[in-house]
């Protein structure tokens, strides 16, 4: 690829992210009652489940913080990233330091996975 093609791809993907993907997910997915994000949505945006997978809470927080730090310092992105991080810190770690895999909307543990390969490393 040449510089012009790369520039066109950059413009295309930036436009898709900022003008299609982000407006679909945010701010509608912010859980203003309990913190974190309500991300289990149908293709029309309808909420289909309000339980929270911890890994996607982290991914959403990372995305928002990365956009804030690399694209534009939008206050709403920083506040939304903080909401996810605060939710994770308050609700997603068990007393043994391991993380839950799935929690309820208000942060009660639902599932904590144990993987065989992790035990081999201990």
Highlighted features:
122 residues; mainly alpha; three-stranded antiparallel beta sheet; two-stranded antiparallel ribbon
Number of strands: 5
The share of residues in extended strands comes to: 5-15%
Element order: H for helix, E for strand: HEEEHHEEH
What does the main sheet amount to? 3 strands, antiparallel
Low-confidence stretches: none
Order of strands, widest sheet: 3-4-5
The helix/strand class is mainly alpha
Distance between the termini: 46 Å
Q: In which range does the helix fraction lie?
A: 40-55%
Number of helices: 4
Domain count: the total is 1
Radius of gyration, CA atoms, in whole angstroms: 17 Å
- Average pLDDT across residues? 93
3D shape: elongated
Describe the fold and architecture.
This protein has 122 residues and is mainly alpha-helical. The model has no long low-confidence stretch (mean pLDDT 93). The strands form 2 sheets. Strands 3-4-5 form a 3-stranded antiparallel β-sheet. It has a two-stranded antiparallel ribbon with strand order 1-2. Helices cover 52% and strands 10% of the residues. It is elongated and about 50 Å long. The chain starts with a helix and ends with a helix. It has one domain (3-121). It contains 4 helices and 5 strands; from the N terminus they run αβββααββα. The chain has helices at 3-25, 54-70, 75-91, 116-121, and strands at 40-41, 47-49, 52-53, 102-103, 109-111.
């Amino acid at each position: 690829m040449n510089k012009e093609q790369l520039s066109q791809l950059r413009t295309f993907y930036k436009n898709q992210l900022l003008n299609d993907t982000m407006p679909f997910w945010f701010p509608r997915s912010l859980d203003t009652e309990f913190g974190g994000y309500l991300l289990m949505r149908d293709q029309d945006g309808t909420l289909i489940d309000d339980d929270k997978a911890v890994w996607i809470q982290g991914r959403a927080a990372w995305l928002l913080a990365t956009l804030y730090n690399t694209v534009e310092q939008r206050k709403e992105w920083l506040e939304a990233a903080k909401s996810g991080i605060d939710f994770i810190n308050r609700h997603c770690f068990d007393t043994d330091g391991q993380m839950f895999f799935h929690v309820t909307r208000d942060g009660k543990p639902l599932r904590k996975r144990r993987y065989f390969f992790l035990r081999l490393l201990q």
